[in-house]
């Protein structure tokens, strides 16, 4: 067993009455030229060879930051994450809050069947919105959400006149 390098070489050592053969490489007072690759070659009488590469590297100094500074960073990251979550939750509430409340009310709320009112919803519209209101909004409220709707056409020229549609 031998160790080889560009600069050093060390042969094997025998122990226990020559029954165990081993090797080691020990470099005292490591110098700049000692850094690099080393190769350990092991062979036996059956012509089997095993080679192992070893690299000796310079130690890099690890500068540990103070514990208090690390805790401040962790607190800052946690606070930033919570704040970002709350802002996202608020934005989702602004965008979908009304829809979610209506869905929650329809799914879990108490539905009064006989509350003394003739209609659940009053929809007022003008000439420009007549087709949209009577063709989309009123049928959707009545079929999808089971609301009883009353529609009222409001116009600056004619107050109280309504469009005639068969579902009204």
TrEMBL record:
Keywords: Disulfide bond, Glycoprotein, Immunoglobulin domain, Membrane, Transmembrane, Transmembrane helix. The chain crosses the membrane at residues 76-96. It comes from the Eukaryota. InterPro entries: Ig-like_dom (IPR007110), Ig-like_dom_sf (IPR036179), Ig-like_fold (IPR013783), IL-1_rcpt_fam (IPR015621), Toll_tir_struct_dom_sf (IPR035897). SUPFAM superfamilies: Immunoglobulin, Toll/Interleukin receptor TIR domain. Residues 1-44 form the Ig-like domain. This is Ig-like domain-containing protein. The lineage of its organism: Eukaryota, Metazoa, Ecdysozoa, Arthropoda, Hexapoda.
